[in-house]
Design brief:
single chain; 68 residues; alpha+beta; Dodecin subunit-like; three-stranded antiparallel β-sheet; 1 helix
């Protein structure tokens, strides 16, 4: 059986719509620069506030991808 090595990076996505959209935009950005992503784990979600109002959603992820 062949062994594999994976790298894990933390990324943060932002959306004015939802945490889900923030996560999708973060994964889409990583997809442009790495290949063979395997897992994206949500580790934190928070909101950006202005004048006591929600103006955006942030999702922090750990993304792993296979090293070649």
């Amino acid at each position: 059986m062949e062994s594999s090595v994976y790298k894990i990076v933390e990324i943060v996505g932002f959306s004015e719509v939802s945490w889900e959209e923030a996560a999708k935009s973060a994964v889409a950005a990583v997809d442009k620069s790495v290949r063979d992503m395997r897992v994206a784990e949500v580790i934190k979600m928070d909101m950006r506030l202005e004048d006591n109002r929600i103006v955006g959603y942030r999702t922090k992820l750990k993304v792993s991808f296979k090293l070649e």
